[in-house]
Amino acid sequence: MTSTQPEQAQGRRRAPIAITIGIVAALVIGFFIFAGLYADILWYEQLGFLNVLTTEWIARALLFLIGFVGMAVPVWVSIQIAYRTRPVYAKLNSQLDRYQEVFEPLRRLAMYGIPAVLGIFGGVSAASRWQTTLLWLNGTSFGTIDPQFGFDVGFYVFDLPFYRGLVGFASAVVLLSTLLVVATNYLYGAIRISGREVVISKAARIQIAVTVGIYLLLQAVSIWFDQYATLTESNDLMTGASYADVYATIPGRGILAGIALVVAVLFFITAIIGRWRLPLVGTALLIISSLIIGSLYPWVIQRFQVDPSAKSLEAPFIERNIDMTREAYGVAEVEEIPYEAQTDAERGALREDAETTANIRLMDPALISDAFAQLEQFRQYYQFPEVLDVDRYQIDGTTQDAVVAVRDLRLAGLGDAQNWVNSHIVYTHGYGVVAAAGNQRSVDGQPVFIQSGIPTIGDLDVEEPRVYFGENSPEYSIVGAPEGANPVELDYPAGGDNGNQTQTTFEGDGGPSLNGIFNKLIYALKFQSEQIFLSDNVNDESQILYDRDPLTRVSKVAPYLELDSDPYPSVVDGRIVWIIDGYTKTDAYPYSTKLSMSQAISDSQQQAATFAIDDVNYIRNSVKATVDAYDGTVTLYAWDAEEPILQAWQNIFPSTVVPMDEMSGDLMSHVRYPSDLFKLQRSILGRYHVTDPGSFFSRDDAWTTPDEPTAPTGSDLLQPPYYLTMQMPGQDDPTYSLYSTFIPESGDQDSRNVLKGYLAVDADAGSSDGERSDGYGTLRLLTLPSGDLVPGPGQVQNQFNGDPSISAQLNILRQGSSDVINGNLLTVPVGGGLLYVQPVYVRSTGETSYPLLQKVLVAFGDQIAFQDTLDEALDVLFGGESGASAGDSDVDGGSGDTGDTGDTGDTGDTGDTGDTGDTGDTTDPGTSTGDPQTDAELQALLRQAQQALQNKQQALTEGDWAAYGVADAELASTIASMLALLNE
């Protein structure tokens, strides 16, 4: 007795400590949760989209509450009724007695805890459907009627998903209630099993019968709705109701719904009269009917009526599928143009396509990133993306296609200097946009830059070159300082080898403020960094920039949009902005074929993405979004204001999307037709260019996108579409376009790689303020002759690879351990046929080498040419005179030097031309201009020329043709500079 008293006293002393620890732990966890939520509020408020966050939170909270109550209350009521109506003097067996003894102390907890736990699950499930619910409340009409039931498409997109979800939730509630009612009644003796006899008390009978009757009523409603879902279900032939569905499945589901309703009524009658025979027989009838009417009968109709005459019987339903699919993917108005492609390369054939020929892009954005890095990176803490983007600019009144990229920040390049201050206070932003002419090259194969350098110079008029918001920006940066404070952010390297730098201070409004201890604490917890709270670099004027990737910012402020996988930078009104295409989509469009979006957009440049909802059978480019690279401002423009799903979301989030009228002309000139949408459309048109149901059924003219011709053997990656400025048949002038090709579809690897179709879309939106050009988005499909006349990309690539003369020249290029890289194989409709153009790059094995464009392959029909420049190659291909000049016509390709640059070394900083090295005393050539300054410049150029000659001779001795080409190009450039200086 005495030993237990201290233990009891010690236990009583421990209890308050444990309670205190629990309360403190709960408060700490609660504050962490609060910190995350409050940080979200600050982020959205600063960006001007707080209503998006609050609307979502309110919707989720209300639906959670509804789901919790909708699940917990019926379950609790069912358990309470079962318990309160239990028999008072029930005869229980010994096993149930033991169960009751164990359960009784926990009864009250279980009766409230089980409904509460199930209520939480129900609330979470309901909250996750907030978008479906809000769309149901705000849905609009599509103006298109389905051909089976005569409902507006909006019923399938907005209403049916909500109704089916609601019925499914209610069914789950009733089913769980039924199970718990049975368990409670059994535990307390209202249900007794004695041998084969089951004895049920009157109260239990009434409750169980009514509950089961309600469940069957819900199943009747669910089966009724399943009739309409048939129009969005896929079968072996198509998406949508087929012959068997219309004449067997849909009527069968209507009959089954009626049977379920009758059986539910029988259960309600049983609750009154107490006889179970009728509802049990009815339940058995429902099960048997579901097997016969729901499964067997449709199978019999399909097997013995449809399959023998499928082509004729399915024709009306295939036609529905064709019409609705083409409408849903926006390809119903595609202009099909029969194209009798010429295959003979005749002299002067390109004369009428001179503008298109001049704009053929030679710079491959998937290959020249290393060239950008070596020539324009300047410091190890900058970087360029692996695949660059394609844009166009007006320069001197002429549209110039360009390969573009921003010089983004790369903190990993800091090495040992990557501490907290450098990573978050000093190195905060990238600098400048770099652009190269797409159709030009330098004499040694380098890109010809139209915008470059630090500070940035060129033709693009960049007023604000700093990139605080990019695809590779740091997780967070802290910027801003009081007026008059010394700048601490690195702006850009100032040039030279002494590490000189310029500093700057962010002056925009780009992130939440850190003005106060509380905000500092919030973000110290969010990013788990005490430095945010303790650092003296954080002041009341500081802002914290995070979530800086353009896709992340747009997806957060517009959670209803599916975003294009390729955001691209443009210089718009003097500022660098990211342009992102936003889609509204659904998988509930009746009779429209479903595609896997991740598979449709995957190709050699875009690997399979992950989407929350991958299947899609309706899509529209309804929003153009921009993100300012300096201050992160997000603007959403209603590109398709009449699109019904966008209209619904505008009702939900008013004032978040601005009209297209507010887009400036400069911005309009840079938006383009999005590539992901085009990939989906080309995937659909591979089969749905056929509008005859019989031909569609037979698949006698089905096409597919060719595999990437430059990929390794065995690769199944598709060739991506390409942006080019070109003139399609039916157009008066060349237009910035996006194109792809088609070859015959085959179920095996032996597909005939001949060209069957050529799809292009006008991608130029014009340059007028808020006014889209009439031709934008026009799809043109060139259908080629039925004979195997025009080789496809795979055949052309094989011709290039197998030609003996080309192989011999490529072997020369490979000397000196250089690699030959085939660039993108472009297909251009010129000269009455289809011209193939492929740039050929050479790259040495040096660590800092990069590909240089040295040759160009061209093909027309079965004729090919391989020359130093595209202009020369076209002249050779077309009988000595193509009739048009290419963009590289001013490049001297006759030197025969096709080597690579080899190891370029450090390119140095902008403003510092690089030390050419002193080669020792150079003999005075005896040339004097009488001007000491000019003479000094000539002496420097002579030293450079001498070094180039030495490098050239050394490369020749070693057989390194890549280095030989570099030295030769450097010598030619130096001599040209000397001549220019002497002329002056």
Structure summarized in a few sentences:
The chain is an alpha+beta fold.
Any overview of this molecule?
The chain is of the alpha+beta class and 984 residues long. 43% of the residues lie in helices and 17% in strands. The strands form 10 sheets. Strands 3, 25, 26, 27, 28 and 29 form a 6-stranded mixed β-sheet that branches.
**Per DSSP, what share of the residues sits in E-state strands of 2 or more residues?**
15-25%
Protein structure class: alpha+beta
Give the overall silhouette: globular
Instruction: Give the termini distance in whole angstroms.
Output: 115 Å
Mean pLDDT: 87
Instruction: Give the uncertain stretches in residue-range form.
Output: 893-928
Question: How would you characterize the largest beta sheet?
Answer: 6 strands, mixed
Q: Which oligomeric form is depicted?
A: single chain
Share of residues in helices: 40-55%
**Rg over alpha carbons:** 36 Å
Q: How large is the count of helical segments?
A: 27
Please provide the count of β strands: 34
